[in-house]
Amino acid sequence: MPQTLIKNGYVVSMNPLRQVFAGGDVLVEGDKILAVGQVPAELIQPGAEIIDATGKIVLPGLVNTHVHLSQQLGRGLGDDVDLLTWLHERIWPYESSMDVEDSYISSLACCLELIHSGVTAFAEPGGQEVDGMGRAIEEIGLRGILARSTMDCGEGLPPKWRESTDYALRKQEEHIKRWHGQANGRIKVWFGLRTIFNNSDELIKRTKDLADKYGVGVHMHVAEINDEVRFARAERGHATVEHLAKLGVLDANFLAVHTVWLTEKEIDLFLLYDVKVSHNPAAAMRVLGFARVPEMIAKGITVSIGTDGAPSNNRMDMIDEMYLATLIHKGRNLNPKILPAEKVLEMATIDGARCLLWDKEIGSLEPGKKADLIIINPRSAGSLPLHDPIANLVYAMHASNVESSMCDGRWLMRDKKVLTVNEEEVLDQAQARAAALVKKAGIVLPDRFPVVRMRY
């Protein structure tokens, strides 16, 4: 099998000892890591590709645990509006107007941004056109968990999305049979639940049963806004998380996203059932509130980082999210020691892998794990000097510092050039399809300032 030797780098392994190898090497063979640190010469084949990483940082690919691939073409549609307007007047009309080809182009465009910002693995909480997403991931080379946004009740749903419980579950089983394990295992499929506003108790319980049957996870927006908690209490008898616990669906394979409006008891329920959490700092800052992330981590709950979708964040950039995550909670708690750089980096790598139930294969640079890694060049005006490389990764780096990316032993990007797709063609198609989608959905954005349209 072909080998790649990355040598003389500042290798941040994220292994159980959290070792950093200054002037270290990483030897990749096929799709696996063969050795990390000081690589014995006898392991290196004569024809191995040699990459000199002197002055650069080598670390595991970042793991984005919540990103809507299908919303990439909707960037800018949800700015400066409340959540219900965002849903009913902007995003639902947009998403329900999409076809498979729209989903494919949206997914490719999103994945380009993920690659440029150092992500090698992600979890998608659900669009409708999973086949478009699967095709994109297979082609572009990332590692991803796909899901279908599943709803069987609720007010204001577009007619296209009004489905029976049986139909919603059957469609997801079809996707698992078609996509789960494809692309050398890079693609997985989980079950998706949108929110308790749009999920009946029957759907929630049967979803968990099927997830257990297939050995996969459940991805759900949970306790996202205060109105949701009030709704759950009024309609189901308890706040969201307490109700999910009574339904018997909280478990180690349950990924709860946002989790802003939790009681102390509900945080304890997460710990009791080993529920995983995806914290989306930028999306939360817009309108949701501030999740009690340090408190959850202190209790032993696994918390990771996600970007959410383009209409709720605008930046699918995990490096930005790491920076925001630490600042939010330092400010909220008036404590500069809360969420230090090393913990935030764990959240974006090994803890993210744990949340996706993939930590035995990814999330750290260790012999036998998959070769998912990135090379960061810190030589830029915004990142030097480099007194404390780990701190700089969180507090000073930018997506522009990500130089190269490898997933499953294959280079996705070298020297900032994406190798698996034609980036310019994808961007052109994304712009054209986004404009057509907005027109089809009947969305009209008001001008922010008076616009004088000139003719020449």
Question: Which key features would you list for this structure?
Answer:
456 residues; alpha/beta; 9-stranded mixed sheet; 5-stranded parallel sheet; 16 helices
Structure commentary:
This protein is of the alpha/beta class and 456 residues long. Helices cover 38% and strands 19% of the residues. The strands form 3 sheets. Strands 1, 2, 3, 4, 5, 15, 16, 17 and 18 form a 9-stranded mixed sheet that branches. Helix 12 (318-333) packs across helix 13 (341-348). The relative contact order is 0.16.
Give the secondary structure arrangement, pairings included:
Blueprint: E1 3-12, E2 20-29, E3 32-37, E4 49-52, E5 57-60, E6 62-64, H1 83-96, H2 100-116, E7 119-123, H3 130-140, E8 143-146, H4 165-179, E9 187-189, E10 191-193, H5 201-214, E11 218-222, H6 226-236, H7 240-247, E12 254-258, H8 264-273, E13 276-279, H9 281-288, H10 293-299, E14 303-305, H11 310-313, H12 318-333, H13 341-348, H14 350-355, E15 373-376, H15 389-395, E16 402-407, E17 410-414, E18 417-418, H16 423-441
Parallel strand pairs: 1-4, 1-5, 6-7, 7-8, 8-9, 10-11, 11-12, 12-13, 13-14
Antiparallel strand pairs: 1-2, 2-3, 5-15, 15-16, 16-17, 17-18
Helix pairs in contact: 2-3, 2-16, 4-5, 12-13, 13-15
